[in-house]
Specification:
The structure holds two protein chains of two kinds. Chain A is an alpha+beta fold. Chain A folds into three domains: 48 residues; 84 residues, no CATH class; 134 residues, no CATH class. Chain A contains eight helices and ten strands. In chain A, the strands form two sheets. An eight-stranded antiparallel sheet of chain A has the order 4-3-2-1-5-6-7-8, with helices on both faces. In chain A, strands 9-10 form a two-stranded parallel ribbon. The mean pLDDT of chain A is 84. Chain B has one domain. In chain B, strand 1 and strand 2 form a beta hairpin. A two-stranded antiparallel ribbon of chain B has the order 1-2. Chain B is mostly helical. Classes of the chains: A alpha+beta, B mainly alpha. The interface between A and B is medium-sized, with 18 and 19 residues.
Chain lengths: 302, 204
């Protein structure tokens, strides 16, 4: 009996000590980790637009972040968009609330510091303060509008949807006509070798070049990937296949369905449906937002 | 029961006489699985070195407080704690290396060599001796992984540390996991042969 008590006591102390060490390290490293994740996200976003270290983005290209909130006020729900202001920024933002039928509700000015804007908690608190006490707020997602010389060229959409096991989080790049420019998988826990193959070029590049009309009715087919398409999907820039050749083959399969991964139909299907959902919802929401911004003459940089 | 070896002997013991991979034949999974390049071997070696040293010192420090009935859970807990710490530090400060090695770092918890060293050495010896034994074992593991990686990278891909040395790929299958078995076996035989030759030379 005494033995058991000693064992319990010592194990508890050991666990507590371990928890303190691990917790301390977590507190110590968390900030750097978050910074890395942010940097990585930026790099991926620029990569999707075709810019890299060797081919840096020109100064005329700017990324503008729009944050979407779900606002519940008096039992009714509405969408709240935090839009950056037109010139310079300096943290001046406009919060626009639009109800679910697309009707404009109100707009208010919010001023945020740069690091406040990047931090979800601080940003949400600021938006809450601008809305007043009556409303409850839930952060939904973020959209990046890419402009070049003040004109819109692309949208970057970080998104998250259920995969086979847990969530798959992606960043999707669309051009101004909602044609998919590229897809990058940020995080997933699919089975290695099966669903994990979604990160491979031959799968994720299948989405490239698909227009919004195609995306509306796209399905997953279980036929083998044609050999020439596979070559085009895996082509590296400056590799064996020329750029125009790749473009030709891509165009040929542009309206086709997505070829499923062998042994991972569920992963293929959930990724396809997830991307489909992101594109459609975004196109719908953006149309409403654009109309409201125009009607209310809100100054935005895009 | 304290060891009568000097610090330097303890380190040499880990690298040569009791090399984890070629002599003790422990932690064969990483040796077979991921010793495909010199760099992989080096990174995992560094991580194991840290975990081994930290765990050895911790166990040695608390050796009188550990109840003998629950020593294995305590060892596992200690190793897991240090692995988590190293995992977090790497993720925060060396993200590029972490992207490659992250999945293997977590596996270190189950490495036989570390538990075995705690059981055989650290729970009986002083902190000082355990520290040097940990360094020796870690370096020995790193040496084993790097020499395996050297052979497999050279023969499998014709490169060393990513630099093209041979210009062609002599034996492509050496990068595959099953070739790790051949490679470990052949290198073990090679090191045994060297030892034999050395001893014979000494006798004559």
């Amino acid at each position: 009996m005494k033995d058991i008590l000693t064992i319990i006591w010592r194990l508890t102390v050991a666990c507590l000590l371990a928890a303190i060490v691990m917790g301390g390290t977590f507190v110590f490293t968390n900030k750097a980790k978050k910074e890395n994740a942010l940097k990585n996200e930026q790099r991926v976003m620029l990569g999707l637009l075709g810019y890299s270290k060797l081919n840096p983005a020109p100064a005329t290209v700017a990324l503008h972040e729009v944050y979407r909130y779900v606002v519940s006020e008096g039992g009714r729900q509405a969408m709240g968009y935090l839009l950056p202001a037109k010139d310079g920024g300096h943290g001046a933002c406009t919060l626009v609330t639009i109800d679910l039928d697309g009707k404009f509700l109100r707009q208010s000015q919010v001023t945020l510091a740069a690091d406040q804007l990047a931090d979800t908690v601080a940003r949400t608190a600021a938006v809450q303060a601008a809305l007043g006490q009556g409303a409850t707020l839930r952060y939904a997602d973020q959209t990046v509008v890419v402009t070049r010389d003040g004109k819109r060229v692309a949208y970057l959409l970080p998104g998250k949807f259920p995969g086979f096991k847990t969530f798959i989080s992606v960043i999707l790049a669309l051009d101004q006509k909602f044609t998919i420019l590229g897809l990058e998988i940020m995080e997933h826990e699919e089975d290695p070798g099966l669903g994990g193959e979604i990160v491979q070029k031959y799968f994720k590049n299948q989405f490239k070049g698909k227009g919004i009309e195609t995306m509306k009715k796209i399905e997953v087919v279980k036929t083998p990937l044609p050999a020439d398409y596979l070559k085009a999907l895996e082509a590296e820039p400056g590799g064996g296949l020329g750029a125009d050749e790749v473009a030709k083959i891509q165009a040929q399969y542009q309206d086709k369905d997505i070829y499923a991964l062998t042994g991972a139909t569920i992963s293929s299907r959930s990724l396809t449906n997830g991307v489909k959902g992101i594109v459609q919802k975004f196109a719908y929401r953006l149309a409403i937002l654009d109309r409201v911004v125009q009607e209310q003459k809100i100054s935005v940089p895009f | 029961m304290a060891t009568d070896k000097t610090n330097l002997q303890l380190i040499a013991n880990g690298i040569l006489n009791e090399n984890p991979i070629f002599r003790l034949v422990l932690s064969m999974c990483p040796a077979v699985g991921i010793s495909t390049t010199v760099m992989n071997g080096f990174m995992l070696g560094i991580a194991v070195l840290f975990v081994q040293v930290f765990s050895s010192c911790t166990i040695s420090l608390f050796k009188n407080k550990i109840h003998p009935r629950i020593r294995i859970p305590t060892y596992t807990l200690t190793i897991a704690t240090w692995v988590t710490v190293i995992d977090m530090v790497l993720a925060a400060y060396l993200p590029e290396a972490y992207a490659k090695m992250g999945i293997f770092i977590k596996l270190i918890v189950a490495f036989a060599i570390i538990t075995m060293r705690l059981e055989m050495f650290a729970c009986k010896e002083t902190v000082n001796a355990s520290f040097f034994d940990g360094i020796g074992m870690g370096l020995g593991f790193m040496f084993g992984m790097m020499s395996l990686g050297f052979v497999r990278e050279l023969l499998g891909q014709g490169t060393i540390l990513g630099y093209d040395i041979l210009g062609f790929k002599p034996l492509l299958f050496f990068v595959l996991p099953f070739a790790g078995f051949f490679c470990v076996g052949l290198m073990m035989a090679f090191f045994n042969y060297i030892e034999l030759a050395y001893k014979r030379g000494k006798r004559a």
